Amino acid sequence: MLPFLAAAALAAFAAALALALSGAISPAAAAHVAFAAGVMPLIFGAMTYFVPVLTRSGAVAPAMRRLPLVFLAAGLLAAGAFLWPVWFNPLVHAGAGLALLAALVMAVWIARRGRAALGAPHPGLRWYLAAVLCLALALMAALMVLALPVQRAALRLFHLHLNTLGFIGLTALGTLAVLLPTTAGRPDPEAARWLRRMLLPVLIGALLIAAGAATWKPAAYLGALLLFAPVALLGKTWLTRFRHEILHPHGAAPTLALALTGLLGLLIAGALHAGLHIGGGDAILGFALAFLLPLITGAVSQLLPLWLKPGAQTDWHRAARARLGRFAALQGLVFVAVGWLAALGWPHGIWLALAGLAAFVARALSICLLKN
């Protein structure tokens, strides 16, 4: 399931970038192809993998393992609404309603796993639960758009920011705090404390940005500050403890560190968007390129070999990670630089990001084909 979801996410990103580059679809359509049909199912697939680890609980039931496919179906419906405007209203309602129902099921499952944990669950579990609840709120806003047409613009902005910085941001940060030390091969003794202390300011920051973008712009600036500080603190810790690994030209660690760097720059861009100083389409494109692309490629570099061949780590796993992470620092720098420029209204470097993504996909396919 997880290799399939990773492939679907990479394919959705490539398709969204190619279509946006050609001008064939609107920025909103491209965003829903990448986020709803690509990122959302992959995130929930990863949650079904990580939650049992964080709670030291048993195997996932078959029904829960298939739940990401429900999110994939919901994402395809939502993307279809923007690709075929004549069916916009029914497709949006169907996609958002299905995703909302699945998100509530996932939230209940995470909470139950936490209560059934062997000992205290890892603090990262609360980040996942908060992220899923942010998605539920964002989906409710999407469903309310047609019922409250006067509030359409405000609800759309709330939906956008709570999806990106709330759902995706919380999931990503909760995972990165653990995943980067794993790629470096050394634990971070401060990670658990950072996760316990920083969830509330990050969550409040995301909510303030979303609400501020929709209603009162100064709140968005306060939210950006609340988000910026924990992200910067995590980056400072990484530079202190894992400087050699994140400054290496190859491997997953530099790509994941660059994703965090991309997010720091995008928080400024997000505040500018909330203040209507840059376009919404530019901000979305920048978020996808400067944060999500290095995040997904870095995570897949580390995790895909394990997903393809679970169990004891062998020379094959090490060789596969080395191949996936080849020239990762250069690739990540391209993603971040192109994303920042796109957020500022200069999208002409998208083809560079698309070329980098195509090269990574080719390496990932070669790993899948040679797994036996």
Could you please describe the fold and organization of this structure?
This protein is mainly α. The protein has a domain at 1-121. The chain is 82% helix and 0% strand. The chain is built from 14 helices and no strands. It has helices spanning 2-22, 27-55, 62-83, 88-115, 124-144, 152-184, 191-214, 217-241, 243-246, 252-274, 280-308, 315-324, 328-343, 350-369. α1 runs antiparallel to α11, α2 packs parallel to α11 and α6 packs antiparallel against α7 (191-214). It is globular. It starts with a helix and ends with a helix. The mean pLDDT is 89.
Average pLDDT confidence is 89
Please report the distance between the alpha carbons of the first and last residues: 18 Å
Low-confidence stretches: none
Q: Helix count?
A: 14
H/E element sequence: HHHHHHHHHHHHHH
Find the structural class using helix and strand composition.
mainly alpha
In terms of DSSP E residues, the strand content is under 5%
Largest sheet: none
Note the overall shape.
Answer: globular
Count every beta strand, where a strand is a DSSP E run of 2 or more residues. 0
What share of residues is helical?
Answer: over 70%
* Rounded radius of gyration (Å): 19 Å
Short key terms for the protein model shown above:
372 residues; single chain; globular; mainly alpha
Question: How would you sum up this structure in a few lines?
Answer:
This protein is an all-alpha fold.
